[in-house]
Amino acid sequence: MKGGIEVDYSATARWAEPLDQGISRAVADALSHNSGLRAYSFSPAALPPPHSYDIRIRIERFEGSDNGEVTLQARWEATTTDSSEAIASRKVSLLRSGWQPGDYAGLVRLLSDEIGVLSRQIAHSIR
Fold it and tell me: Other C-beta atoms within 10 Å of 116: how many?
């Protein structure tokens, strides 16, 4: 983001996978490795294996800005597989500073850290 109002797309730095699938995979990996939960990511080509919870995440902001801040804003909710009523939900707003605009590998590292925080919040809420 430039000046908080203009989106500046890199001509060469691109995500290696669709963002929804990448975030889903990263959250599932973090849940599986750090919380003792067994988690599976979203895959449009396959049905999920038997599971107890569904987690829906709505990403509102996932960006770096020209002032060196990296932001993840999201809303998430957890439901059991046999009910559509949320057993836990939360709005998450994470902000980190210290990014050098143009350092896209650094941006990915900071956003990945924020996904880890989001995953820990989800795990804590459903255990």
Answer: 16
